[in-house]
Amino acid sequence: MLKMRKAYAVIGANFGDEGKGLMTDYFCRQGGRVINVRSNGGAQAGHTVCTQDNKRHVFSHIGAGTFAGADTYLSEFFTVNPMLFMKEYGTFVSETGIYPKIFADPCSAVSVPCDMLINQFLERQRGKDRHGSCGMGIYESVKRNSDAEYAVRFGDIFPGSERNIYDKISRINKLYAPKRLKELGFEAVPDELREALDNDAVTDNFIDDMFDTARICSLSDGIPPAYDTAVFEGAQGLMLDCGRSDYFPNLTPSNTGMKNVRSLLNGFKPDSTEICYVTRSYFTRHGAGRFDTESAELAKSYGLTDRTNVTNEFQGGFRFGYFDPEEFERSVALDRKYVKKGDMISVCVTHLDCTDGKLICQDKNMAPETAAGIVGAQKLYLSFGERAADVSVKETGCL
Predict the structure, then answer these.
(1) Helix or strand (DSSP H, E) at 353
(2) Alpha helices (runs of H) in 232-319, residue ranges in sequence order
(3) Residue 391 CA from chain centroid, whole number
(4) What dihedral do alpha carbons 137, 175, 209, 135 form, nearest 10°?
(5) Whole-angstrom distance, CA of residue 316 vs CA of residue 339
(6) CB within 8 A of 57, min separation 6: which ones?
(7) Dihedral (C-alpha) 224, 141, 46, 98: value to the nearest 10 degrees?
(8) Among 86, 87, 106, 294, which residue's CB has the most CB atoms within a 10 Å radius?
(9) pTM of the model
(10) Are 16 and 237 a contacting pair, CB within 8 Å?
């Protein structure tokens, strides 16, 4: 068992899409035997990594440090979607020739088709009042898995358990779905949902994906011990944390900051821990909800676009807005309750190549050094491109 020398936590400071994939890749390249830990979220994550030799992948289940040679650990706080895992895994292997090594915690929640179907049905029913869900059933997965009678965990999938799994999925479709929909105000399961839930082919294909996923991923009860460096890859951002009542109901059902990381580090005493809060040089949001500094004119003025976040049925278009220093400071301050004495705080500002090296604010543009100073960061990372080689680092002088 190796002693953990370093731990890095990559945390989005805004509404997500800050550049967490880039910084996960960067930290996984700093040496050592690296395990890339997915510390929250699920398949709705879309962390883009580009390499020097022009490989590009949007990571959802597989850790964003895979190009850097890191292995992946899907923690107990991560929700596995076997259908989307197999789709991503197949695409990644065929396009890169890399077979990633992946561990999964037996307590990881598993999304089932019922979760996605209910989620998508509800979003369509909400019309203009949509919550901004991505349609992957993350909240519905969390909700169902909180009920022990209908919970499905990754550890439930093992050779010989096919019959049990089939029975459990059938019970979810026949008993849980009507129960859940009644909670939501529907006296009966709508025909469009019932047809999909009763489709044996959907269930059979899903179960095939479950067991294929289980064959690819090794079970590990906690962070595997054979690594001296852990890079924790957060999903979404601090402004979408489940505890941010000021942005309710347009939130994600997980802890997006240091809370889960602290729990996962329990029992480990790294020689050093660095917590990196990542922000773009402007704010973005994909999905419905409050966005105080949103500005279509800003995007037009700077020609801002995004290759990863395309318009889709559930989240709509990608939204742009000014960097908000007060909200940035507040978000990081709320997360500091999980920061320990001796931890290093750093800030990374990405997309600086799009904004002439400044953070674009409503009143006066801001130097990245000022943003780092706002939260007392000891180190500042500057990104002027999509690749790890485009990231530079400087000490700030803050203690």
Answers:
(1) none
(2) 258-264, 296-302
(3) 21
(4) -10
(5) 35
(6) 48, 49, 66, 67, 92, 95, 96
(7) 40
(8) 86
(9) 0.94
(10) yes
Based on the structure, what is the number of domains in the chain? 2
Query: Could you give the CA distance from residue 262 to residue 1 in angstroms, rounded to a whole number?
Result: 20
The DSSP letter of residue 172 is I
Residues 167 and 285 in one domain: no
Residue length of the chain: 399
- pLDDT digits over 274-330, tens only? 999 999 999 999 888 999 999 999 999 999 987 776 666 566 678 999 999 999 999
Closest by alpha carbon to 274, among 382, 328, 348, 334? 348
3 state DSSP class of 316: strand
Cis peptide preceding 249, ω within 30 of 0: yes
Residue with tokens 């309710």: 248
- Asked if residue 343 and residue 302 are part of one domain, the reply reads yes
Name the residue range of residue 382's domain: 6-105+220-395
Antiparallel, parallel or unpaired: β 102-104 and 71-74: parallel
Helix (H, G, I), strand (E, B) or coil at 349: strand
- Amino acid (1-letter code) at residue 176: Y
**What's at 204, amino acid-wise?**
D
Closest C-alpha among 326, 318, 322 to residue 358: 322
User: 323 CB contacts (<8 Å, ≥6 apart)?
Assistant: 279, 280, 281, 282, 283, 293, 359, 360, 361, 366, 371
13-55 confidence digits (pLDDT tens): 999 999 999 999 999 999 999 999 999 999 988 999 999 998 9
Which of 132, 139, 88 shows the shortest CA–CA distance to 115?
Answer: 139
Calpha distance 105→73 (Å, rounded): 8
